[in-house]
Structure formats: C-alpha cells, structure tokens
Amino acid sequence: MKLPALISLTLGLVVAASAAEAPRYRVAVCDWMILKRQKLGAFQLAKDIGADGLAVDMGGLGNRPTFDSKLGDPVVREQFLAKARELGLEISSIAMSGFYAQSFAEREGVERMVQDTIDTAKAMGVKVLYLPLGVQGDLVKRPELRPAVVERLRAAGKQAEAAGVVIGVETALDAAGEAALLDEVGSPAVKSYFNLANAYQNGRDVVAELRALGKDRIVQIHASNHDGAWLEKDPQVDLPKLKAALDELGWSGWLVIERSRDASRPTDVRYNFTANAAYLKRVFQAP
Q1: Burial (0-12, 13-18, 19+ Cβ within 10 Å), 88
Q2: How many C-beta atoms surround the C-beta of residue 91 within 10 A?
Q3: Do residues 145 and 99 lie in contact, with contact meaning Cβ atoms separated by under 8 Å?
Q4: What is the set of domains in the chain, with CATH numbers?
Q5: Rounded-to-integer distance, Cα 136 and Cα 138, Å
Q6: pTM of the model
Q7: Separation CA 170–CA 280 (nearest Å)
Q8: Long-range contacts of 31-34 (CB under 8 A, 24+ apart)
Q9: What is the tens place of the pLDDT at every residue in 66-104?
Q10: pLDDT at 245 over 90
C-alpha cells in the first residue's frame, strides 16, 4: 500500500475509533449557573464537578448594543479553547442568557446580538447557540408576541444557516406548541433546546413531550428541574424512564445541568452540581 493511502486509512481508523469512544449522551454544566459566567476558571470547576463539557455564556446584556463578551478578543478565545483542550472538555453551546430577562421579540438590535454570538461560536468551533425566550418572551402569557418571535427567528435562522450552526430555542410552550412554532419558522437551523423543568413544573408528561417534538427538532436538553432537591432525590424525575424514551427516539447529544440544587445548601456549587452530574452519568453513560 502506498504511503498516502496508508496515512488516509490510519486517519480514518483514528476518527472512527474516536467516534466509537464518544458516549451517546454527554453531560455539561452552564458557566453562569456554577457562578463562573464567561470566566476561565469555569473549565476547571466543570472538570472537578465531573462534567464532559461547559455551556459558555456571552455575558450580560443590560442596555448595551450587544453582549458584554470578552470572547470577541482572539487572545481570550484561545485561552478558553486551550483550557478546554488541556482538561479534555468540550464547549457544548454558546448561550445568550441575557434573553432570560429581555424580550427577544421587542429588543432593538437583536440581529447584531445573534450575529455576534454566531461569530463567537464559529471562531470557537461550537455548533449550537442557546436562546431562551425568557420571562419577557413567554408565549403562553404573551401570545401577541408570536408574530414578532417568528419573524425574528426566521431572520436568525438565515444567519445561522449561513454560518453552519444551530440555534436552540427554549420556550414556555408545551411540546405541541413548540413544534408548531418551529414548523412555522421553517428553518433547519432553529430547533428546540428542550427544558425538562418546563414540562415538570407545568404537570406535563416529559416522555410524551419528547415524543411530540421528535428527535430531529431537539438539539440539546436542559436536564434539571426546579431547585429544592438533587435530580436523584426529586420525586418528579425518573431518569431511567427518560433515557429509555430518548433511546427509543434515537436521540443523542448534550444533557446540560442548570438547576436541581439542594434546598439546604443552594449556593454550594460543587456539592449540588457534582451530585447531579454523577447521577446523570450513572444513568446515561452506564455500559
């Protein structure tokens, strides 16, 4: 066999082996929820917690024209990427958590904010953006915002399609409503960032919700519930049943821990997130 062919075969085997070794489900934590929002130290803390990756936020928004992000600086970006490589972690998504409290439908300058996040994700090799519609964009309580949300998501979808990334949207809608919203937007680059807590806290059947959305509409999952108890001790949460449903759907991807903190020690990051990461891995990454 000639050398170029041998090299090509070897590289192919290495890639195949790496793909085979990657777990079907991976566990991440949000940097803002472990109190390390866009801080380099978030990677070491995520590693200590036992996560496989980290969701990195774009920073505060406030009244600025765009996010207060340091990641537009190539030097800072490389520091983040180098630390992730050093610790064997991946960046699961780039988040726009500023929209938890601001209205995506009404805020001026949304196109720039989305583009800045896309540019950051591309520069860091990250394929998923997280966009929560939040309190001000709650389409259950404020259905009149739907036309504006659809219009803006269509525009954002075009931006994302051009860049080869996907925007994962978290809404307050039930699965049928969210599926209808995504279908109306009609972009392959706009999908559901499904939050288990949305279903649990509204008395909905999580498995039925996942099936209603379907594998192809879900890009990532926030795998936690409201605060008060760890996932393992939460009577609403049945992770083995959830895993069976996701296995049946053929879904794979990131399970990102956001909350589920023990009410007796809500500010102890290591205590809470280590316990939740360990339980998720025990259920979802068991041989």
Answers
A1: exposed
A2: 21
A3: no
A4: 24-221 (3.20.20.150)
A5: 6
A6: 0.91
A7: 21
A8: 31/55, 31/56, 31/57, 32/57, 32/95, 32/97, 33/257, 33/258, 33/259, 33/273, 34/269, 34/273
A9: 999 999 999 999 999 999 999 999 999 999 999 999 999
A10: yes
H helical segments located in 88-145:
110-124
Q: Which two tokens stand for residue 221?
A: 């999952």
From CA 5, how far away is CA 233, in angstroms rounded? 54
Q: How far is CA 108 from the centre of its chain?
A: 24
Q: Which residue has the tokens 């996932």?
A: 231
At 42, list the tokens.
């978030």
Closest by CA to 230, choosing from 193, 198, 270, is: 270
Residue 242: which residues within 8 A CB-CB, separation 6 or more? 196, 206, 207, 210
Distance from the first to the final alpha carbon of the chain: 37
Tokens (6 digits) for 112:
């720039």
d(CA 8, CA 13): 9
